[in-house]
Amino acid sequence: MGRYKKITRQTYEIEDAVLTASEKEASRMAFDFDKKWLLLLWMFVILVISALTARVFYLSIVKGEYYSFAASGNSVRSVPIIAMRGLIYDVHGKVLADNIPSRSVTVLPNLLPKDEKERDLLIKKVSKLLNLNETHVKTVIADALKNKMSTVIAENITHEQSLVLRTKQKDLPGIHIQQTAIRNYNDGEKFAHIIGYEGLLQKEEREDNPDYLLIDRIGKTGIEYEYEKYLRGIHGMQRSLVDSRRNIIENLADIQPQNGFDLHLNIDAQLQKFIFERLQKELERADTHRAMAIAIDPRSGAVRAMVSLPSYDNNVFAKGIDSQTYNNWITDDDRPLFNRAIGGAYPPGSTVKPVMGIATLAEHIVSPEREIESRGGLQLGSFFFGDWRAHGFTDLRRAIAVSSDVYFYTVGGGYGDIAGLGIERMKQYMQKFGYGQKTGIDLPGEVAGFYPDKKWKENKIGEKWYIGNTYHAAIGQGYVTATALQVLNSIAAIANGGTLYEPHIVSYIVDKTNNKQVNIDKKVIRDNIASSDDIKIVQEGMRQTVTEGTATMLSGLDVAVAGKTGTAQFGDKERVHSWFVSYAPYDNPEIAIVIMVENQTHKISSAPLPVARDIYKWYFGGRDENAFEQNL
Fold it and tell me: Taking 70 as the threshold, does the pLDDT of residue 3 lie above it?
């Protein structure tokens, strides 16, 4: 009790001292109190700063070299996630080109050993594991370092090779197994000249494609080349943080790839295969290996089939062609890699006569009923211009049907009381129908053909133009050349009533990522190129070609066909280029076809006719795949 009172009293005494202190005494008391805490705070701050300074000194000076080395070994490894190329379909949705999984061995330059001796050892290891030439591996690695870009060492490696490499991955710094895909072409040989092929980007190609990687594949020919910007996708990226020993420290967020757009073609795969197989069989009879055939819809220019023989298997390129096979193909006299349907310029022969008929009527050279006699040729001074036979008197319709050369010599170059068109007007009309110029088809490698005139001959050959040159041009010979597609397109314009369309392979493009479709609309090159009356007369002449002229082999078909045969001489008189161009049904055409057998022996009948007969029989008769066998 006494202690309690004492403490209480002391407390009161302190409180009384504070309460009774003057203002000056109170301020002195507060300062002494704050000064103690401030000193404690400063001592704490100094202690922390000293500790941090010591730690920084330890890390940067004592252990600086160690941590600098360790940090320099850490890096972000970026590996492309390859985007799939768009698929290619035929008009009915059949897949013509898809993708199959594959593996490539690539170099990641940022992960290669810095030391040259270590890289040399790496080159020896990789060469041995993949059974590759050391010089090749060394060159690839040097390119990768120079371009600072992933580069392919080996494509399409086997599963066994992949397993071996994975087990030795830690001993192969900078060597990566890249998951990718290569093309698979269904019935590759039959579609090779349309689809083309894709392959690994070459160094020289990258100059024109700077946004490509050296591990990229790119379209080389055909649709693969023409529509590369749509078919290629956008690669993703797999990123990870790796230490100096190439061990993954952390997986970073991936960037997902975007696959390429799908292409839907106008090509009818069944028709393509039928024409290919039927024409190939006919070549045995014709004693040649070269031919071409094209089918288009004359109402739009949509290409339904395009065959060029001999052909090649484009899968061989996609999977990595060996040098022996490639050398065999490029040295073959029959040139299997060449798309002769659009790249070959040949004398079109009598297939030009329907267009010549249009020009004759439009310029009022003679009436359609005017008859011109053919006694087997036309004598002009000391020169004789022969006909393939004596046709007697023929008007325009019959002249087309029986293919009278004398008739077209006369209306082209003139004879007797008939003045003739002359080469300048002939060229004007031939160009209207597409001769001497590219059609604009969406394939690479098309040539323009050639149609001559007086000025060209004087400048090029140094001779004046003779009437004989006009006679030859009037029947598609002499200096005149054309592609099979040009011949077909000119006849398609007659079949549809006077519209020249730009032929096109692709129908529409699909972006599956954004669910969008882009249609390839038909494109008119020229319309109303002749009067309907003139066109009708020529159509009737082409129909007579089948009913009573040079193509009666097709007269027994259930569908009415109109056409024009042609035989073009070149060099060796024992060999000819044999043509047949036609369309059906006659009253409402939906398909036009040209067939040309190159270098055919003159001893047999026209090779294209039985092929055309069987194509029409199959196409309009239920598409029986065995339809042609009974006619062989």
Answer: no
